[in-house]
């Protein structure tokens, strides 16, 4: 079946802060819309008015690591119910900046949350749903840190973390990708934005057609 005639698909973008996801998401969304597809672009934590309020809290208030994980999944439950599930049900494509793989990488890998607790929450909040395709933008934390420093004035609680935190997040992402049965494509995100976009669009064409 061609890209245009299949039902909805769920595509996620993952990577450590500063990996350059945002530019790539915009290219993919443009490309899919150019094919006449209905594309819902969203992000986590966030994507609904309530989930965006939870995002504000979780990115800026100090809290226990389990509170942080629970708020990520609370925001996700809301996002799934109001945006993701209805969009997929009507055959739209959903392109999302982060999903549960980010909770695995940041809360389990970065913060040390018990992996079994993560799995309980994941099974509770989306027992039957995983993305159809996940791009992991993989880059050394040193390069990502330079990009963050050049790019913006205001940093959140995660962007302020030290290099070793991002080393752990990166390792957890790579492990999750390895164990994903091919759901993940790992992209070398140390290259130029154009080279990465070319790669991403080529993969999208072959993987989803
Ligand atoms: P991000 O999505 O990268 O937005 P921006 O481009 O505006 O910085 O930032 C969200 C932050 O939230 C990022 O540091 C990763 C973190 N995060 C988690 O720790 N766990 C999660 O489950 C999600 C979805 C995000």
Question: What attributes characterize this protein structure?
Answer:
5-stranded parallel beta sheet, Rossmann fold, 5 strands, 209 residues, disordered N terminus, alpha/beta, binds thymidine-5'-diphosphate
Q: Would you mind describing this structure in some detail?
A:
The protein is an alpha/beta fold. The protein has helices spanning 21-34, 49-60, 65-89, 100-111, 115-125, 141-151, 163-178, 193-208; strands at residues 10-15, 39-43, 93-97, 133-138, 184-188. It is globular and about 45 Å long. Bound molecules: thymidine-5'-diphosphate. Thymidine-5'-diphosphate (TYD) is lined by residues 17, 22, 43-45, 72, 97-98, 102-103, 106-107, 158.
Order of helices and strands: EHEHHEHHEHHEH
Strand content: 5-15%
Count of all domains: 1
Q: Helix proportion of residues, in percent? A: 55-70%
Secondary-structure blueprint:
Layout: E1 10-15, H1 21-34, E2 39-43, H2 49-60, H3 65-89, E3 93-97, H4 100-111, H5 115-125, E4 133-138, H6 141-151, H7 163-178, E5 184-188, H8 193-208
Parallel strand pairs: 1-3, 1-4, 2-3, 4-5
Helix pairs in contact: 1-8, 2-3, 3-4, 3-5, 4-7
Short précis:
This protein is an alpha/beta fold and about 210 residues long. The protein is built from 8 helices and 5 strands; from the N terminus they run βαβααβααβααβα.
């Amino acid at each position: 079946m061609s890209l245009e005639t299949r039902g909805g698909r769920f595509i996620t973008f993952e990577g450590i802060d500063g990996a350059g996801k945002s530019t790539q998401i915009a290219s993919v969304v443009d490309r899919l819309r150019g094919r006449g597809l209905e594309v819902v672009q969203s992000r986590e934590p966030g994507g609904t008015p309530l989930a965006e309020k939870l995002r504000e809290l979780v990115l800026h208030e100090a809290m226990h690591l389990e509170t942080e994980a629970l708020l990520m999944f609370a925001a996700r439950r809301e996002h799934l119910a109001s945006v993701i599930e209805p969009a997929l049900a009507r055959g739209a494509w959903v392109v999302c900046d982060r999903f549960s793989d980010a909770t695995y990488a940041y809360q389990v890998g970065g913060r040390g949350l018990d992996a079994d607790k993560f799995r309980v929450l994941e099974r509770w909040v989306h027992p039957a749903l995983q993305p159809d395709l996940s791009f992991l933008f993989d880059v050394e934390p040193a390069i990502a840190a330079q990009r963050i420093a050049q790019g913006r004035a205001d940093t959140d609680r995660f962007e302020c973390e030290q290099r070793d935190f991002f080393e752990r997040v990166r390792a957890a992402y790579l492990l999750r990708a390895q164990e994903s049965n091919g759901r993940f494509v790992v992209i070398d995100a140390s290259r130029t934005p154009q080279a990465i976009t070319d790669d991403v669009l080529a993969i999208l064409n072959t993987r989803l057609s």
